[in-house]
Write a structure and sequence with these properties.
15% strand; alpha/beta; binds iron/sulfur cluster; 38% helix; two-stranded antiparallel ribbon; ten-stranded parallel β-sheet; globular
Length: 364
């Protein structure tokens, strides 16, 4: 197996991204076959365990409390509700459950204890458990690992430079610090981004530099296409073309050959042919379920029809790494430290975020 390259430069990545398409596809499909079964695609289910009311200002997100969107917010789900949904997901072919909470960062306390219990419960269903809960300290990462967490998702979203055009309530370095905290445990890292937010191709390449130069590279990289939601600062962004998506997937596959590349938000805008091209280019995971957190997603039956049509099989769990053991709460060796880390608040001003906030104030 070829060695993994960890010193990709923006220029090298742009050269790959801009290759003639047939050459790019051939190279990506070749890298894919060297490291993965090309006929296997993981089906993951994303559960929004706590929706809306988020204090952050991510310009793409309908869950930010400051914007006026028509999502139905909900408090933290119960462990039983989560278990029921995980069982349903498993019976329809999912091998991974990703639980998302609209938080800036994790806070020690009852709610986090409840999330730890959810992790234990789903791990015992023999499914890969992933969480995306915002910024995280090392101790919190260790507690999640001990509960049986398989992956932690924390997206870089875009290049460091473009990040400042989308989010003003935290910095790019906070993201890297959380990823670093996860890396101090056995939990795998899931980190990717969103294309179609008005960034340049150079920003996409810079994001891939930031991800591919991590050592080890993230085990999982979701590539999202922006779903422009009314009321958010990015509501007027035009959908990206399928060609951008295919090029981004193929380039990700080439620079991170062992990674699970995930087709995430924006699949409803893609045809089956477009998705097939993404699978050929190296995508090997999709998110199932009629909603992705709060935005629409193809329904499971439609996805299963597509799998049949393309001769794809859903991937079994724990192919790349063994199932973690679950330590029960009473046997835990980590206590809640009640830390209050100083995550940054750059709070520069992003005009379109401010405008969306003002519009929301008027609407309320
Ligand atoms: S993306 Fe996450 S952190 Fe940002 S506003 Fe939405 S829920 Fe909050």
């Amino acid at each position: 197996m070829s060695a993994i390259k960890h010193n990709w430069t923006k220029e090298e990545i742009l050269d790959i991204y801009n290759k003639p398409l047939m050459e790019l596809l051939y190279e990506a499909a070749t890298a894919h076959r060297l490291h993965h079964d090309p006929n296997t695609v993981q089906v993951s289910t994303l559960l929004s365990i706590k929706t809306g009311g988020c204090p952050e200002d991510c310009g793409y997100c309908p869950q930010a409390a400051r914007y006026h969107t028509d999502i139905d917010g909900n408090d933290l789900m119960s462990v039983q509700q989560v278990k029921a949904q995980a069982l349903r997901a498993k019976s329809s072919g999912s091998s991974r459950v990703c639980m998302g909470a609209a938080w800036r960062n994790v806070k020690d306390g009852e709610e986090f204890d409840q999330v730890l219990e959810m992790v234990r419960t789903i791990n015992k269903l023999d499914m890969e458990v992933c969480c995306t809960l915002g910024m995280l300290t090392e101790n919190q990462a260790k507690r999640l690992a001990e509960a049986g967490l398989y992956a932690y998702n924390h997206n870089l979203d875009s290049s460091e430079e473009y990040y400042k055009e989308v989010i003003s309530t935290r910095g790019f370095s906070d993201r890297l610090e959380t990823i670093d905290n996860v890396r101090k445990t056995n939990v795998t890292v899931c980190s990717g981004g969103i294309i179609g937010m008005g960034e340049k191709v150079e920003d996409r390449a810079e994001m891939l530099v930031a991800l591919s130069t991590l050592n080890p590279q993230p085990e999982s990289v979701p590539i999202n296409a922006l779903v422009a939601v009314e009321g958010t600062p990015l509501e007027d962004q035009e959908p990206i073309s399928i060609w951008d998506m295919v090029r981004m997937v193929a380039t990700t596959r080439i620079v991170m050959p062992e990674t699970q590349v995930r087709l995430s938000a924006g699949r409803t805008q893609m045809t089956k042919e477009g998705q097939a091209m993404c699978f050929f280019a190296g995508a090997n995971s999709i998110f199932a379920g009629d909603k992705l957190l709060t935005t629409p997603n193809p329904d499971v039956n439609e996805d299963m029809e597509m799998f049949k049509l393309l001769g794809l099989n859903p991937q079994k769990p724990f192919i790349k790494k063994m199932q973690p053991k679950t330590v029960e709460a009473q046997d835990s060796q980590y206590e809640a430290l009640g830390e209050k880390p100083k995550w940054s608040r750059p709070e520069h001003t992003i005009e379109r975020n401010e405008a969306a906030k003002e519009k929301a104030k008027i609407a309320k």
